[in-house]
Design a protein that fits this description.
- The structure is a homotetramer of 209-residue chains.
- By secondary structure, chain A is an all-alpha fold.
- Helices cover 73% and strands 0% of the residues of chain A.
- Chain A has nine helices and no strands.
- In chain A, helix 4 (57-82) packs parallel to helix 6, helix 4 crosses helix 8 and helix 5 (89-114) runs antiparallel to helix 6 (119-145).
- Chains in contact: A-B, A-C, A-D, B-C, B-D, C-D.
- The interface between B and D is large, with 41 and 47 residues.
Chain lengths: 209, 209, 209, 209
């Protein structure tokens, strides 16, 4: 009987974590390239520079938003990988698809920053988040079904991970829907919900989300 | 007797893996820089934006293609490194040559995206893949011949790794040849074969490839 | 009782260190992109090239300054992480905010290099440093209060880490204030104090800072 | 007695290695950004594309040269770090200076590619290599003098590391001097000596270098 390549390939959780940290690091740092320094010729005094920096406001907002998005998904993926005994080829490829969505983020962020009033730009941004969530959900389903999860995970930890992804994606979906009133409603809602996830205030009904 | 520098240099598999993960991460994320956001002045409404994004189609296709290519070779290199007991200076340099081919990928991808109907662009892309495969093959030959492989590798695992590289390169070569009919035939064939490697459907004759 | 996602998320110090090393590495290397190679058409001989390179002087100075800044904060964060037993979700997010400030550095460096005589540019640069210091201080406060610190830290090590951050931030603040006399006074002072931290000469009153 | 911050800072070899791998990875991948894809408007057929790609020749040569340079110094630094028991603050800063020289490489490469016939460009490139070598030499001196080296290093291993750096730097210096005859002599000599280090042919007098 021949040993199939697929049986011995892609088993290292450590290398998957290292590639992921690298891709997150590059994507998170590339976001700053959209914050373009004002052109020298258009600035003739401190006052002009205040104006030019003020005009960067929407881009800075998008930058913060996407940095938080990537932070949330980085924590989410880390939580999964920490609880894996080992990986296999199939799971590695689900995570490569997840990382593909991570590398798309600088593009969709830039698009939304440039076209902040366009619903299509918001839709693209939301699809990006949806892809992040879907691949992360799929990877957890796949890991639990194939028995790759460590046994030290608290009994309902696996369910908690699923629930978190589903609730977050519902909120993102609701936020995206708000764009029928205007894209700023969507962006405001998404920023608020992400701040809640990042800061995690000790408010009862919020921490249940 | 003098200790030669060459005997103590380049022995860490961990550092080689870390450098590789870093280079793969940067190369995979740089690909997104080719997806350029439409210029604001040319877009006057949602409809224009749909058109402008639609025009990014071929670039998105190339992006997905190259991301899959790099993913496949990342899994391939990882599989080799996981089974190495240690490295040495010679093997490190073969992998540095492999990583050189990895860093070339954003260039050859960009070239093919810009000149998608030119056979020369496809030829360059294929040479890039050939260089990836050749260095990976060479590194495995070298590691097995010099006894750097761990003893826990299943008996015909070493052969399975070789076979996979040779079959894949034959398919890539056949795909490149298809460009006599047109570059889209080549690209379509390569996308299809890479999807097969990534998704690995449970179809018998496909999983034998 | 349900296991809250927040209890199992973000606990790995290793992954936090890996993401941090990645972001520092990208940010430190992106700084070089501001050192733009002179345009070929404007250079007609060795003499022109000397002039063109000389004109890069202020940018090179800013590059060295920011590289040192990032180096200092990298050492500072590493020192903290090395003494952590484990992380938790809250601490991870403080470090993500710290990393946000790291990714801002190429922007504020570029801004100050372009507008080296503008107080506002210096103010932005200083805010960036303040954000780095504040998040680092917050993370250490948070880690000690929540008992995440290893027990092998020398008794007054925790206080030494706090003191270092407070003294350094006071010096940075004083340096920023010097801009009432001109931005070059500020930059000169900050370069000098950072050289002191980097080189750490064996001078008594200096090493007490 | 107060615990000085300097005594507990910067002690992790692992983090230093991780930062180094990250910076090398980014610098090695950024080199490819100088290989600019020909502009579509100037290419009207396969023949034009051959010409346009041919014109990239000098840049490709510089790319290969710098990739090898970085590869050689990556192997060199790795060899040192592998033999360190631990680091300290002073050694960390020498390596941060070394990494500064690494991040300069994309700039000096680009400069020499653009001004390949200018002695000043070659001089800058050589200064970059000299800085790499000097900091690496300094770090080894410092590590051996302060007793940070592991005891499992073969007896004359420490001397072998020094000798290698000194011989290599002498050759680089000789290569740089050749520019009195023309920069191509220098570049040719450096490429040849680096190929010797990378390939390490089993020729007696060569392997003694």
């Amino acid at each position: 009987m021949k040993t199939s390549y697929n049986l011995i390939a892609g088993r290292s959780v450590e290398r998957l974590a290292a590639l992921s940290d690298g891709i997150f690091a590059v994507a998170m740092t590339l976001l700053v390239l959209d914050l373009r320094v004002p052109v020298e010729q258009t600035v003739h005094g401190e006052h002009d520079l205040w104006g030019a920096l003020g005009a960067l406001g929407p881009r800075l907002l998008m930058y913060v938003l996407s940095f938080m998005t990537l932070g949330i998904f980085w924590v989410g993926q880390q939580t999964q990988l920490n609880h894996l005994e080992r990986s296999d080829r199939g799971l590695s490829w689900i995570h490569i698809a997840f990382l593909f969505a991570v590398t798309l983020t600088p593009f969709s962020t830039n698009l939304l920053a440039e076209f902040i009033r366009y619903r299509l730009a918001l839709l693209v941004y939301w699809c990006n988040i949806l892809l992040l969530g879907a691949t992360l959900f799929l990877s957890w389903m796949s890991a639990t079904r194939r028995g790759l999860v460590k046994s030290d995970l608290p009994q309902d930890g696996a369910a908690a991970i699923c629930r978190r992804i589903l609730v977050a994606q519902s909120l993102y979906g609701f936020g995206a829907l708000l764009c029928v009133f205007g894209t700023f409603w969507s962006i405001g809602f998404i920023v608020a919900m992400q701040l809640n996830y990042a800061v995690a205030p000790r408010v009862r009904w919020l921490s249940r989300l």
